[in-house]
Amino acid sequence: MTAAAQSTADAIQRIDSHTVLFGVIGDPIRHSKSPIMMNRAFRETGVNGVYTAFHITADKLGDFIAGVRAMGIRGVNVTIPHKLDVMQYLDHIDESAAAIGAVNTIVNNDGVLTGYNTDGIGYVRSLKEEAEAQLVGKHIVVLGAGGAARGIVYALSKEAPASITIANRTEQRAIELAASMNGVTSVVGVGNDQLERACANADIIINTTSTGMFPHVDESPIDAAWLRPGAVASDIIYNPMKTKFLMDAERAGCRIHGGLGMFIYQGAYAFEYWTGQPAPAAAMRETVLEALQQ
Ligand code: NAP
Predict the structure, then answer these.
(1) pTM of the full predicted structure?
(2) In angstroms, rounded to a whole number, what is the distance separating the alpha carbons of residues 265 and 294?
(3) In a designed cystine with 93, which of 53, 98, 198, 214 is the match (CB 3.0 to 4.6 A)?
(4) Ligand 1: distance of its center to the CA of 116 in Å?
(5) pLDDT tens across 225-248, in order?
(6) How many angstroms is it from 107 CA to the middle of ligand 1?
(7) C-alpha 155: how far from chain center
(8) For a substitution probing ligand 1, which of 175, 206, 210 has the most ligand atoms within 8 Å of its CB?
(9) Which burial class, exposed, middle or buried, applies to 109 when counting CB atoms under 10 A from its CB (0-12, 13-18, 19+)?
């Protein structure tokens, strides 16, 4: 039996009158690896919880949140397309989730629901643990200005890098995202026509666009010749785990960092908010890796 199957079996066996409910909502949702990852985390730490996936359409979002209160569901992860719309149903929004403008984690404290965003901090924890421990003073280029970029740029700006340049196909979105980050770090938004110049000076280049994601695995958001050897090339896509962008960057002499860690650590933070315990990140990663390789 695989670790993932064992985890599911163990979680099911342990369900009793004290079992606490958790879950992820989205539309679609059946592709999600969150249930196997979180149930493995519960098993590893001895938390009597069970985590499942709920297919919630937009018209049922309010009813679902009423159900969270009624049933005492302790924690919910929120994915596409509900990260913005869910905010109106919550009692409190954490300061960073409010600044990012999206919630991916809900904590239910006796019927009082608080929304957090763990995507950006999950990404930064992964980047620091797996690729670049020190972000202070670094020049960073972020490709893309969509939902994932929002959280990532916000979390990066807290690490005191020298600069963050957001480059996007639709330049206006990059400019607007940069303008919304009124922190101490210099954040500018540009069009892709200025990407080559931005990359020449970059220590870290992060792909947050969907370019290169399965099934479009032959696409890359950038010409690897623009990358500086020794720079870190980071991609938040984890299907495939090594995108064309990362393969090209590796050949160009860059250090590479894939998107699986972001997924693991956004879940690890959610686990920690819900349980108050350190998340078993290595076990969570093992289970997700195994599932992705099946
Ligand atoms: P999103 O809000 O739809 O944003 C997509 C971004 O990609 C936009 O900036 C868009 O540019 C750009 N883009 C899309 N197609 C493009 C193309 N052909 N050429 C150039 N730019 C293009 O999506 P998202 O939620 O931010 O997600 C983006 C990616 O991150 C997805 O692949 C997703 O799977 C991945 N992701 C990974 C994790 C993780 O845990 N590792 C978490 C969240 C997301 P325009 O503004 O011009 O349209």
Answers:
(1) 0.93
(2) 22
(3) 98
(4) 21
(5) 999 999 999 999 999 999 999 999
(6) 26
(7) 11
(8) 210
(9) exposed
